[in-house]
Write a structure and sequence with these properties.
Blueprint lengths: L1 E7 L16 E6 L2 E5 L6 H8 L9 E3 L5 H4 L13 E5 L6 E5 L2 E4 L6 H6 L3 E5 L3 E4 L2 E4 L14 E5 L2 E4 L7 E5 L4 E5 L6 H11 L4 E7 L7 H13 L4 E5 L4 H9 L4 E2 L7 E4 L3
Length: about 280
């Protein structure tokens, strides 16, 4: 059984017991392997998980897609004990991240450092190359970038004390395999969703069945959004559950297309994915 559940997202939930906020957290049960992909930005993630009946005490691993607060800070508010859990995160994850406008910097990083995670008893694995964490579950990094990623100039990070443009070397994506193809789970696609898709198709000789998560198209023009969708469809992808930072304009354009399937992914949405 493969089951994906949206625990936290921007989109309003259809379930009145669940809340939404600018954040992302997804629960994956992959044939008994239980993964939490991102932790949202507050204790609201755990309230949603409880209302969904999810027991997070037996998680196999936690994956942090990148080091922005809306994907990570929830970890600090977890009311239980995650000690001895394994956390996977990307290279340069611990570099401070900022949004910089007119020379003014605002911290938007993870609020996590290596010392804190070690003190809490986590086993931290830094993903520097593609890694199969369990049979059929792969973390993908070091994305090739043939397409313009269009990373907003406001995103910067501090590397060895120097403020530089953030190219998001920390971003990782999750590939979930089955016999028919693969499902792709994204955090924010800061390196560019087309670059991530291009990389995955290069490295896996399987069709991408559905793309879940954030596509970061909220800053793109309508023309750029349409071009991106056209290229994703040309890559053979016909099903999308894009949410979070994808942006409402992009979602509206997606849902208007008749040649693809758009799957809502607000908190509480559950998808059972074929594993044969």
């Amino acid at each position: 059984m493969i089951e994906l559940i949206s625990v936290m997202d921007n989109a309003p939930s259809l379930d009145p017991t669940l809340c939404s906020e600018h954040a992302l957290s997804v629960y994956l049960n992959y044939n008994g392997i239980k993964i939490l992909f991102d932790t949202g930005q507050s204790e609201a993630t755990w309230k949603n998980a409880a209302n969904l009946g999810l027991d997070l005490s037996d998680l196999s691993a936690i994956i942090l897609s990148h080091a922005h607060y809306d994907h990570t800070v929830g970890l600090r508010t977890y009311p239980g004990d995650f000690a001895r859990k394994t956390i996977y995160l990307g290279q340069k994850f611990f570099d401070p991240k900022y949004s910089q406008t007119d020379g003014e910097k605002r911290y938007i990083g993870s609020h996590l450092d290596r010392e804190y995670l070690q003190e809490q008893g986590f086993s931290v694995i830094e993903v520097k190359e593609d890694l199969e964490i369990y049979p059929g579950l792969h973390l993908i990094s070091n994305f090739s970038r043939p397409y313009a990623s269009r990373i907003p100039q406001r995103f910067v990070r501090e590397d060895a004390g120097v403020i530089i443009a953030d190219s998001f070397p920390d971003e990782i994506a999750l590939v979930v395999e089955n016999n028919k193809g693969i499902y792709l789970l994204l955090g924010c696609s800061h390196p560019g969703i087309l670059n991530i898709i291009h990389t995955v198709k290069q490295r896996f000789d399987k069709d991408i069945l559905t793309v879940f998560g954030g596509a970061h198209l909220k800053d793109a023009s309508d023309a750029e959004i349409r071009e991106t969708i056209d290229l994703m469809v040309a890559a053979g992808i016909g099903s999308f559950a894009l949410s979070h930072c994808t942006g409402q304009r992009a979602i509206d354009i997606l849902t208007a297309r008749e040649d693809i399937e758009y799957l809502p992914f607000s908190p509480g949405m559950k998808y059972s994915l074929s594993d044969n």
